[in-house]
Structures are given as structure tokens and as C-alpha cells.
Amino acid sequence: MIRFYFHPTPNPAKVALVLEEAGLAYEVVPVDTSKGEQHLGDFRAINPNGKVPAIVDTDGPGGKEVTVFDSSAILLYLAEKTGRFLGGFDDRPELLSWLLFIGTGLGPFSGQAVHFQYAAPEGLDYAVRRYRREAERHYEVLNEQLAGKDFIVGSDYTIVDISAWGWIDRASRVLKGVEDPLSEYPHIKQWFNQINARPAVARARMVGKDHDFKKANDEETKRALFPSNYAR
């Protein structure tokens, strides 16, 4: 059994999708980041970085309990556990390159673009432009990679597609103010529509729907999500 520490944001969504695609048994453990539950000691014992997602696999290698945090690490772990979504042997170097491109580039810059466009104080125009443009640049790189291809790496659906889906699904927030945010990236749009039609995506979207996550953006939420903005 896998305990899946979840909040409805892009990185946990990737893990929800790979779990559903693989048909693995799992239990959702809600972590309400707007209430600061990611900072509690019990969760920090699982992920010292205080971020979701994380998993605890009670049936890891050799039957031992294994803890994994960071969405890219979790995707890779689950793909290796099941022997699926890794492409061919010769694809591995490219797969790792693109997985880390998403984990260190597309994802973080998209997240910062969202933060500075929606959550940061007004007047930080340089930061807004910087992160929005870098997010767009990563979209451009991915769009070029997908030209004439069904999948990002090789000829098969892999954890790279799953990882990218988690963030491209939020394109309307990343590319704020654009009516059709993927219109400038036709190869991404075609790829996204293809991935989005998979039955496992619909199931992944339902993960956590039975939990009432906090939605109010009040002072408690700001302190929980952006603790570095407040004096210790």
C-alpha cells in the first residue's frame, strides 16, 4: 500500500496520475498547505523540505517501508517499481534530461510566474516580467520538442508526459490574461489534448475531491504558504 500525501496542486497531480495509470493501491493523506499542515512535525519527518507530494510505500524493495519526496523522484520510483512509463532502454538519457527540464525549469518558473502574477505585492513589475517570460520560454522549448511527435520522449507515453501534464494543465494561470493559453504552442496543445483524454486523467482529477481543502486566502494561508515573508 502507498500512502500518498496530497494537496490539489500541480506536483501532487502528477503523482495522482501515475498512480492511476499504474493501477497501484494507494491511500490519500490530505495535507492542507493553506492551513500550514506541511510544516507540522509528523509531515516534516516524511519530507524535511515541507512540500507535497510525498509517498510512503509500505511494500518497497525487499518488503521494506520506503519514503520518497519530490514529484520527479516519486515518478521515477513508481515507474521503476512497476516497470512502466520509462520508454525504451535507449531512451533513458533523454528521459532523464526532460524529466529534470520539467522538474527544475518548466515547473519552478511556472510556479513563480503564478506567484508573482497573483500573490505577490503590486509594483514588482520586473519579477512579473522575468518569471512570465521564462515560463513562456520553457513552453517554447517544449513546443519545439513536440513538433511531429505524440510524446515528449521516444514513441511511448512516459513519466515525462505525466510530469509535464501536471503543469501544462495550469497554463491558464501561468499565462494569465490569454484566452487560449496554448494557442501559441500548437504542438503542446495537440499533445495535451491527447494526454487529457486518457481515462486515468479523469480519475486523477477526482483525487482529493472528498476532502474540504481550505480555499480562503487569509492571513493564516499567507503565513503557511509564504513563511519567509514573515519575521521568525
UniProtKB/TrEMBL annotation:
Domain of life: Bacteria
Domain GST C-terminal: 88-225
Residue stretches making up the GST N-terminal domain: 1-86
A matching Pfam family: GST_C_2
Membrane-spanning intervals of the chain: none
SUPFAM superfamilies attached to this UniProt entry: GST C-terminal domain-like (SSF47616), Thioredoxin-like (SSF52833)
InterPro entries reported in the protein's UniProt record: Glutathione-S-Trfase_C-like, Glutathione-S-Trfase_C_sf, Glutathione_S-Trfase, Glutathione_S-Trfase_N, Thioredoxin-like_sf
Protein name: Glutathione binding-like protein
Record PROSITE patterns: GST_CTER, GST_NTER
